[in-house]
Structure formats: C-alpha cells, structure tokens
Amino acid sequence: MSAVDRRTFLCATGGAAALSLSGRMGLAQALPEVGALHRLMEETPRERVATELAGLIRGGLDHRRALAALAVATSRRVQPFPHVGFKYHTVLALQSVHLTALNLPVRERWLPVFWALDYFKRAQDAERRQSGWTMGPQPEPAAGTAEAARKSLIDALDRWDLKAVDPAILDFARLAAPGQLSELLFRYGIRDLRAIGHKAIAVQNVHRLLPIVGAEHAPPVLRSLAAALQNHGGDPNPATSDLRSDRTWREFQPMLGEIPKTWREGRRDDAARDELVRTLRGVSELDAGRAIIDLLKRGVSAASIWEALFATAAELVLRRPTVVPVHAQTSANAFHHVFRHARADSTQLLALLQSAAFMPAFRRRIGNARSNLRIDELEPLAVPGNGVDALRDAFSELPRDPTAGARKALHYLQHGGSADALVASARRHLARNGRQSHDYKFTEAALENYGEMAPTAWRDRVLAASMAYFTGSAEVPTPVSQEALQLLG
C-alpha cells in the first residue's frame, strides 16, 4: 500500500492514532468500516494481508464485518467470466466459509476467513495477469419506480444483455423490497443447466450474504451476481437460439400444470424415494423431470424426492470423488435452498425439476466409473468401537482411499457412533487442512443436505458416502492455517 493509500485508509478508519497497520489497535470504535476494510483487503499484497487481518482481529474486528468486506472485495476484483467458476470461486465459496466458521470452536473460528482472504489474493493476482479486470464505476440510477425497474431487469435478463443488466439490478434493488429481489433472482438462477450448477450456487451465496453485507455495500455483490447469471459461455445468445442447456427450463414450465395443487400435502414414501434413485441412474434430463412430476401426481412428498436427489448426488461423488461430480451435491444444495426460500409455487417446483435434470448430466460426465458402487448397496467396513478412535480411523483413510473412509463411517454410524461428532470432525479437518474452494463448498452442502433429511438409516448412508470428498486428517495444518494460528496466538 502506498503512502497516499495508507493515509487515505487511516483517515477513513479514524486516524493514525487509532490504528496502526502493524496490528496495534486503539478503541474498538476505531475499527475500519466495511468500505475501508475491503479496500485494505484489495490493496495489501498477499504476503502481508494475513498479518494485517490478525492485527485487526486482535483489536476487536468481528467475523461478520470481515466477511462483508470479503464479499465486496471479491466481487469488485474477480469477474465471473469467462467461467462462472474457477477463480470466481473466491466469491462463490463465501457462504460456505461463513457456515464453517459459525460451527467451529472459538479458537479456530477465524481459520476459514484467513483461507478465504488468501484465496482471494491468489484469484485477484490471476485476474490481474489474465485480464486486468476490475469492476467499473457504479451506473447512475435510471428507473423511477419499482415496477419500471422490475420490467427493465426482466427484459435485460431475458435478452441475456450483460450491459443492460448492470444498472437494472441496482435500480430494482434500490426500489423493491428485498423479498421481491430474491424471488426474481431465484428464478433466473435456476433457468439453465450451464456451468455445472454454479448459477444456482451464486444466487444462494448472495441470498445468504446480503443480510451480512447490508444495503449500503450490496451494489458490487449484486452487480457481480447479475453478470454471472448472464454468462452463457461460448454459446450463442440463448435468447435467440435453441440450446440444450435451456431446453429443460422451457419444457418443464408447461408441465407444471400437471402437478396437483395439493402437492405440498404429499406423503413420505421411502419406497418411492428408492425407486427414484434407481430411475435417475438411467434417464435423460427431461425424463428425470418427468419422473419427479409422476411422483408428485402419485402423492409422494417433495421431501422424499429431495432425499433421493441428495442420495443420487452422494452416489455420484462416491463413484468419482473429483471436482465435477462434487457439483451434483453442491448444486442440489443450492436448488434446495431456492426451493425452501422461494415464495412462488412455480419457482419452487422448477427448482426441484431442474435439480433432478442436472443428475443425468453429471452422470454422463463420470461415464462408467465404478458403476457398481451404489449408495444403497454400500457395505460397512469395521472400525474399532464407536468413539473418537473409530472416527479418527475413518478420516485417516482420506484422501488416499475415499471408499474405505465412507465404508468405515457407515460402520461407525450403524453401530451407535455420533453423527454430530462426525459432522464436527469434518468441519475441523476442513478448517485446518482444507486447501480448495470445493473443500468448503462440498462439505457445507453435504452437511446441510444431510441435516435436511429425516433421521433414518438412509440419511446415515448419505452422510457416510459424503466422506468420499471430505477433508482428511493431517499431522500439521496447511501453511495458511499455521500462519493464522501463529498470528492469533
């Protein structure tokens, strides 16, 4: 940071007497606000930024303010092009980082934030080398009423117009109620099968972060999301083309009329759930959606259907625990978030159908890899007892033998082991040993999906199968975690 930048920062945060960038803090009220803090994160070199953050934490910086600043910094400095993924995960992983931190012991609660900050600096450096992109100036307001803003935003999104969507989303966010904005974003986050589910993940991420970021600092986060939703990769403009990624969205909408109005009153049906898992092993995207509609017409509950989707996703990861299949689980989690929080029946049902349609797409990506490895046939592998040693034994298999880790976890759970202890261990290993954004995204998605299921033996199978991509134990934490622990004492 230059001398001029440093003086600007100090003025913004209450003066040089209140704050030294070496980490010595004055009164708690002199801590930087989000605006100054995100600039500090953006402008401090990677090799120094952890020390700066540690100094602020020792002076009383709270987790929510740090996360809000990270959300703004990542949105301003890393674009969702050419892919809604890769370096853009510095944005996409933040809600998972937040969930992990909230569920850690106090001493380790800051480790995910240090990881996220270091990952941001790496992504920022990559963006600087590849494109030099930074977010441009905020556009001026255009619409005068909420309805005019809504129409402009829908028009821009429908035309896949990247330039027009930028001012439109800010106008609508400024004039509409938060629930109206969320409802619209939910719908456009689930409209296509591109980017292995990252658009739904992006909408979920922002929906969870906005209450933390606050209205004052939301514009960069919303502009970034709107751009991500308009990314259609190397395809022609979807508004004027008939593309495979958009067909399920178009074909499912008229099918909604077949679903009984009483679909919310469906019954729990474990046999139908198991049947759906088998069905999804061999159907197309459209037929996956049709299978869901048939179950709803038979009176099967949406909860039973979601359990089948979570199990299918877990099975795909178990068969090939690599980055692409991981998104079967993370996208199912994001679609389920939309399902739970959307107000319109049509949006909820389309989220359910689109999530199902993604499963055959992921299945094709893994081909015939270990096709005989099925979640309903997974055999437990004995571990000693059902306590700490048994859990340690299961995690010690990762990442060398993920199937053995899953089988040992299943034995542990079937013989009285604590699922809560397994969940806590997964998060602690993640915070200390996790290296990639997918480590965070997958772990939190899998744990949340597990938590949404009824407490049955089936749920234990889904949790055990998720071991295939959980972070394993290690003798020493990652370099980022080691530095954070040392800096925080």
Could you give a quick summary of the protein structure above?
The chain has 489 residues and is mostly helical. The protein contains 24 helices and no strands.
Walk me through what this model shows.
The chain has 489 residues and is mainly α. The protein has 24 helices and no strands. The two termini are 26 Å apart. The longest helix has 22 residues, at 345-366. The radius of gyration is 23 Å and the shape is globular. Helix 6 (94-102) packs antiparallel against helix 7 (111-130). It has helices at 3-12, 34-43, 46-58, 63-77, 89-92, 94-102, 111-130, 146-158, 162-175, 178-189, 198-213, 218-229, 244-255, 270-279, 285-297, 302-319, 323-341, 345-366, 388-396, 402-414, 419-433, 437-451, 457-466, 479-488. The model is unreliable at 1-29 (pLDDT under 50).
Helix amount: 55-70%
Broad structural category: mainly alpha
Distance between the termini: 26 Å
Reading the helices and strands in chain order gives HHHHHHHHHHHHHHHHHHHHHHHH
Mean pLDDT across all amino acids: 93
In quaternary terms, these chains amount to: single chain
User: Main beta sheet, described?
Assistant: none
Quantity of strands, as a count: 0
Overall geometric form = globular
How big a fraction of the residues is strand?
under 5%
Number of helices: 24
Instruction: Give Rg in angstroms.
Output: 23 Å
| Regions with little confidence, pLDDT below 50 for 5+ residues | 1-29
